[in-house]
Structures
1.
Amino acid sequence: MKILFGMPSKDSWGGPIASEPPFVEALRKKGIDCTEEVYVYGDKDKPTPIFERIRRVLATAFRFRKILKAQDFDLLHLNTSLDLRTILRDSVSIFLMKPKQAKIFCKIHGSEAEKFAETNFVIRFLINYLSKKIDGLGIHTYEEKENFLRLGFEENKFFFVKNAVTIHENLPQNFSRPIKEKDECFELLFVSRFIETKGLLETIRACKLLKEEGCKFILHCVGDGEIRGEAESEVEKLALQNEVKFTGYIPESEVTEYFFNSDLFIFPTRHIEGFPNVLFKAVAVGMPIVTTKIRAAADYLKEPENCLFSTQEPENIAEKIVQLIENKELWQTMSKENLEFGKKLLPENIAQEFLEIYEKILTK
């Protein structure tokens, strides 16, 4: 089997750059002929200017076209999403690539398919084009599948997939997360791109309530993005400078240390998530978790085995944090369950699942 992978650029932010390279390497170890080429660039702290985005899309599409013309691939695997920008990018790219006999598989890292149930003629035409050209779609959640089906995609093209998570490969044997007394200082962790829908501001406001209740804690906000200034202003307004710390964007190795050394992961997102890598990293290293019940969290995690589900309201977030701090038995059980779940996400296990999917697509 010979596969051309459309990969995220090495300087990308977000889950795909953390999960896709080790997954592809695991496929190689299983004897699959894998060629990697950059397809996804993504925004960082600021959106990419429109003309630069267009230039990159066209240059990338013609680069893929050259590779596909020079070699015979069984499958073209693209990492993508389904929002307005990726609908435009993918339809133009696939048209220009002309992948010949290669089947097309698209792994969806989050989608906004529900927004296009009613749209204009041009976008509807492009969605119909993609639905015919794509031979298989890897999706994370049932909600996403239902939204795609409403747009006219065929049900037999969908396959449920998970992301590879490598963070727990470095865990010591028989690792267990320490349990603190409720009067000790707890290290809380928020990791994400700082955009409005990820829940950073709500987490900071929850910290004000924790402080008022006498909890001892430090919240580490790991990442960067467009609302960082607003978040720092909120910390100052609420007089939380001693309790809330910002790291800025830091290398993946340093992020990993925060996952190992923190006590509790907070992720009250309302973003259109797929399979958020930061959430499942926290799962994989046995962290107790407070998160919202949406998309992959709703489909893969259970309460109270893996997490406590909160709303996006600061009062509810704070309540769930206190519940974990005060309940040692719940803390210990959740940590143990999450460590076991994390083993399923090792790259070799994910690679085997994908191999079975590829074979089904190629034999259609």
2.
Amino acid sequence: MGKTQLLQEIDSFIEENENDILSDMAELVSKRSVRGPAEDGAPFGPGPRSALDAGLAIAKRLGLLVNDGDGYVGWADIPGKGKEYIGVIAHLDVVPEGDGWNSDPYVLTERDGWLIGRGISDNKGAAVVSLYAAAFLARAGKPLNYGIRVMMGCDEECGMHDVTYYLSRNPEPIFCFTPDVDFPVSIGEKGIHSGGVFVSAPVFTTISSFSAGIATNAIPGRASCVLSAPGMSGKKFKETEGIAVLPRDDGSFLIEARGIGGHAAHPDGKVNAIGILTDFLLDNEIGGADERLFLELLRKIHSNAYGEGLGIACTGESLGRLTSIGGVISQEGGVLRQDMNIRYPECVTGGDITKALSKIAAEHNARFEEGEITEPFYISPDFPAIKVLLSAYREISGHAAEPYTMFGGTYARHFKNAVGFGPGDDFTPRPSFVASDHAPNEASYFPSLKEALKIFILALWRLQELSPEELGR
């Protein structure tokens, strides 16, 4: 099939299936696929399992061969000539919806071409696009040198234990991309130090509760605490932007802070509400000496999103600047726990970060607990498969963009030979009524998703023409 005919057939396919694509995206968004308690066949809870069942039903209707992968990573296949396959892996789990939505987060809402709903951008819209890309190749009857497998994971947001399970039981794809990034091609990712927590030692006597955050990898847009020590009644507080002081009948105060939430990997333009609340408490001399010592530690954590207050700031030549945010914070009794999410480049190691955070925690009568650490990765832009992806994007979009590295963490880091590839679009201005991943009013632009489908089809078509040596590094 010639290039002109191929592009015409892709356009016809997208036009014919537009309504079904929208309907399938709405079906996936309707599933509240937040991780929950494990059940039989649902290792990450009934929510992710319901989304996986919906995704597999879409794949089966499109004529693809399906497997539920024991509820960890399900997949849809098109067989090739041999056992080697090209993988596409999206995820169907989402972070909790949180507050601040202008519409039901689990009802896909359209406004001026924008689709709004939890997970439409991260990553359910891309999952549907990937399934339809595979369906086009299946219907085109093109003999495939390599099978195509569209994988749908259920635990990307909470540690990626799903893909670890998958790879322990299935062969690696010869090449793989995850549609969980912006175009054109992400060829490297920072390491993630995501399990670290600060835990306070002293008993809190003034701050009786402190809470914020919906996920460890999300910047909290709201935070609150209750001040309930004797003698607090009638206290005057300094007026502070972003802070509301609400007296309660029992003489205590509910203090609420409002910032600008978003994904931990993209802190620019965001304001962590925990930092606002911490500064307010310190500026108003709240708490005893032990409480204030721990609040000073929180102030260092939240002084900026680049680790400067913690002494871990650095910038790598390939992967850019380290980022560091405090996500979920919770208080149980006299113990206050602050979860951390640090994205680090090649100029520092996970061990270096653990050492630095342990030291600064100890200086504030607290302790640091190391969690999961994943190291950074980087692939040369000269790799032939990356050139194919890049050329498909440039040809369809008309943008002469270059490969890049990113702050976020995707499934790509778990495969020997994988990159991030779309479908995000940086060239379409976002109106004020929509937001990015992990934030309320998360949205994707439907015309961009349709263009991404065309790019995916062309890329998968041309990847078939590469030799095994060109696909596998």
3.
Amino acid sequence: MSRGVAEMQSIAVQRVQKPAPLMVEDQARADWYGLLAALWQAPAPESLLRDLRNAPVDPGTELGLAFGGLVEACRQFDADSIRQEFDTVFLGVGRPEVFLQASFYLTGFLHERPLADLREILAQAGLARSEAQSFTEDHMGVLCEVMRLLVQDGGEQQSNLEFQQQVFGSYIGPSFEALCDALERSESAQFYKALAPVARAFFAIERQAFDFV
């Protein structure tokens, strides 16, 4: 994935501490988390779609193949149609068609104990929700932004890895498959159907890696 695709703006969380230098592997992980965070927090702007349309694709891996499907979806849809789909699928009137909050997949409800626990975890990691962000901390886009910031803080540090493992193992890992299933079943999702295989493949790699931490 090119740096142009990975360098996206997000207001999910604000950093309390300055990041440390990154290893190449951790930069790649941060890039994937940044991409998922951007696409789940807001409709993709035309600038991001343009970068994705021109991004190189490696079909030799499951993640690369899934990313190729997302690139193709970016070529089929424009920013206006994606904005309408985002509103229909994730916002809606009343109950959204697809929930992006991990707490919903963990408990069947919103604003439950997992959210309160997550806020405590983030405070320990030196992270806090930005005042400009309307989503709760258990929103999948926000969780991906949290992971991006944790990775960028220096993923090789043991204390940092423990925070990453806690956030992923307690929130992303137990909920991403149900979320991806919901996206793939959605009658309104077209562009975001292509995001589900990317998320599924990347998170599967992350889960396997954390099993060895």
